[in-house]
Every structure is written in structure tokens, then in C-alpha cells.
Amino acid sequence: MNNSDLKQIWLEKFKTAPQTLSNLKKVEAVGAAFNTNIDAVLKLSGEKLLELIRANGLTWDDLSSVSKTRLDAGVDVLKGIFKCFSRGIAEEWIAEDITVYNWMVDNLGYDRLQMGGQCGIVSNALGACGVRRMYVHANSLPKLQADQFLPLNNIRSFDELGTDRPAYQINRVSDIPLIHWIIEFDRGDKIELDGHVAICPKANRFIATYDPLNLNLVIDNNFLDNMKTQKLDFAIISGFHALTAENNGQALIDKAYPLLKGWKKDCPDCIFHIELASTQDIVIRKAIVEKIAPMMESIGVNERETIDVLEIIGEQALAQKCDLETTSENLFKGILKLKENIGAPRIQLHMFGLYITVQDKSFKLSPENNLQGMMTAACVAAHKAKIGNIDNCGCDPLWSYDQHVSDIGLDELKTLADFIGDENLIKTGIGEYEGYDVIALPTIIVEKPVTLVGMGDTISSISLVASK
Ligand code: GLC
Description:
By secondary structure, the chain is of the alpha/beta class. 41% of the residues lie in helices and 21% in strands. The chain has helices spanning 3-13, 17-23, 46-55, 60-64, 74-87, 98-107, 118-128, 143-146, 221-227, 249-266, 282-292, 303-312, 316-324, 328-342, 367-387, 407-420, 425-428, 455-465; strands at residues 29-34, 37-43, 70-71, 91-95, 112-116, 133-136, 155-158, 164-166, 179-185, 190-193, 196-199, 204-209, 234-238, 271-275, 298-302, 346-351, 354-360, 430-433, 436-442. The strands form three sheets. The chain has an eleven-stranded mixed beta sheet with strand order 8-7-6-1-13-14-15-16-17-19-18, with helices on both faces. Helix 7 (118-128) packs across helix 18 (455-465), helix 10 (249-266) packs parallel to helix 11 and helix 15 runs antiparallel to helix 18. Residues 35, 37, 39, 92, 116-118, 121, 180, 207, 209, 277, 453-454, 456-457 line the site of alpha-D-glucopyranose (GLC).
């Protein structure tokens, strides 16, 4: 079957998305912990990047022979941006020294501030879609942070006295704002330096983080105490990725472990999902995969995060293969390894053009419901990419409702269908492999996205919660 016939089939299937989206209004309660911050977003052109590279005396060789992924000085920020720009990839590097933050203030500036951190982003997304009580953990909640929450009464957090209030109305006056730099670039933009040319193959972003509270996994006990009394349907967990071994990260994970165990014990019916996020420190990545992820019912990853985890579970060859040929077939093999190694009942990959969920037959949410959730997530994500936000997604029709799925997505879906030996997957999105349910969805691609940051968090959380 050719792609235009398939596009028609998927357009028909996507017609249920508005109904699934409105069903989110029936979900009682979701909790999101731990990382909420403010993102300072900057769209950087190749021209401006080149100017900064020259002003800081960096050569092509300095930029193309980067091995560390930590920010010790301002020039490291430029190396990180160049790496992501030239490869079209997404990474987040951590700075532990305030001089790097000051360098960014002085040299980069920003276009706008917006909600940041997996938990903050997920809370605004699910809150806008109408989840009845969306509880968000914030280890710092001064007015500037509260201003990034949508002004909705269903998005809730805790003030310094532990009172449950709409998050946008809270102002914990002694807290400090936690600002991360999000540097976005466009596909096709280029840099010419020392006789070499780098052309950005895919719109993407580099994140430079200086955040003393999230780096120390500071936890608001008022939040945890309260969550135990709530009948949560889902909990979305993230925020370990910013820890580093040098900064006591392992001990912080050890400290969080019993807290999460206790939370899970008190909410036995809640589905816990972890968004793995870009974790540069290998010791920490290992600790997340070995200690935290096995407690979870569901895991969310993108292409890069899949490769990063493969590298630390003894699957270097497959990691390399996924890196060289980032196809649905290789990544599918990758997420199967992750699922089996971690023992996760459900795993979802969001790759360029395609989402794939693999889950146990006994998983609480059926493959059909998962597909509904994933289609809804694809519509919300495309709307966000095109319009720049989803602030009214519970009320207004989404831009994406009548858009066709992408050729890239369909081609990747065909590759996956060939691999699992089930041609029907191309039309139904539902198949089986080695005793697992496989749900795969070609998605809508927005050519010139207004924004991409937080896309993975939005996709994972809406896919899961809208599957209920
Ligand atoms: C990471 C970054 C945060 C960003 C988020 C988007 O958590 O630290 O700044 O908003 O990723 O996914």
C-alpha cells in the first residue's frame, strides 16, 4: 500500500483524538515529581553561533573533538551547542559553577521564559487538558516560577506552610528562581569555519543547566506527605538526570529510593511512570537504571536516551548501531533490551516521526487504549510545535486534528512491521512481538516548529494518561 492511501487510513483513525482528549477531564488525579524549573529559551542562528565561536577563539578542531559533556566554563556551552547543532541531536549538560551561568547571562541572553523541567511541563500539559487535580512538586516556587504555571485551579502545589493551593498563586518568597538555558536551532542552518561546513540536519536543542536545588534533588516533604493521601491515577517521575557523581548524586538517589517506595506503597493503584531524560553522568545513569527505573510500571525514552542506556547495560554494539542507523528497527531492538534489563512492564519510545510502546500482555491499559492515548499525544505535540503552546488544549480544537501523518513516520512504521513480521501493523498500529504487545504510531511532523523543548515529556505523559 502506498503512503497516500495509508495517510488516508490514519487520518480516519485520528478522528477519535478529540474525544480521547476530552476524556482526560475524567481523570481524577495525577502527581508529578521532582523537577520543576524555569526555561530561558533562545533561538540561535548559525550566524550568531559563529560570532560567539570566533569571539571566544575556538577552532573547528576544538569544537569537533569534544569528549566531556560537562560545563566547566563558558566555552563548553559553545562546544555543547555546536555538537547538537552539527548533529541535529538533543543533549543537556550540567554546570556546577555559577560563573557558567553568569557567562550565559552576559553572552547569550534569551528570547522568553517558560515552564521547564519534566514535572512542570507535564503539569501544565495535563492541567490544560483538564485532568481534575494535577499535583506538581516544586522544590523552589517563587513568583517567577509560579508565573510559568497556567492560571488554572486544577494545577496544584504546596506553599511553605504545606497548604494545597493553585500553583500559579503560590509565592514562596525565600525561594530562588532556577533557570535553565534552552538553545534551539533550525534544520538547514549552517556554520562555515576553518574551511569546514556544518549543516544542521534536524531542528533540535541544547540545554545548559545551572540549578543548585534540582542538582541536589531537594524534596518538598509537604508534597510527598500529601501525595500519600491522594488516590492518584498516575505519577510521573523525573529529575534524577541532573545529578552528578561528583555532587553526591548516588547518595541522593539512595535517599530518594525509600521515599519513592513509600509513596508507591501508599498508592497501590497508581501507575508510576519515569521519564528518563538526558543523563550525562554515567554513574548516575546506571544508578537510575538499576535502582529507580525497576520500581516503575512505565518508562519513557527518546532515541538518544535509549542509546545512552544501552551503553551502560552491556549493549555497546547495539548502542553503536542505533547511533549510526537510528531506525525504528534498531531502536525497537534497543527498547526491548531496556525493557528486559529493567524489568519494566511498559516502555514507550518517542523517535522522530514514530512512537512505539512495548508492554506486557497483562498491562493495565489495553493496546487499543494505548493507541488512542498515543494519537491524542501526537495531536497535542504537533499543535504545540506549530503554535508554540497548548494552553487551551482542553477547550479549543487543535490545529493538528486534520493533518496527515508524516512520510518519515510511515516509512519507519513499515520498517518496524517488516521486522516484527506483521504487515497489519502499518494499518492498525497494533501488533505483537515475542509475547509482548507492540503499539506503533506514525506521527505528524511540523516543518518549522516554534518550539521543541518539552515535547518528549508532553508526548509521554499524554500518551499514558489519555490511555485510561
Ligand atoms: C530537562 C531540562 C529542563 C527542560 C526539560 C525539557 O529537564 O533540565 O530545563 O525544560 O528537560 O524536557
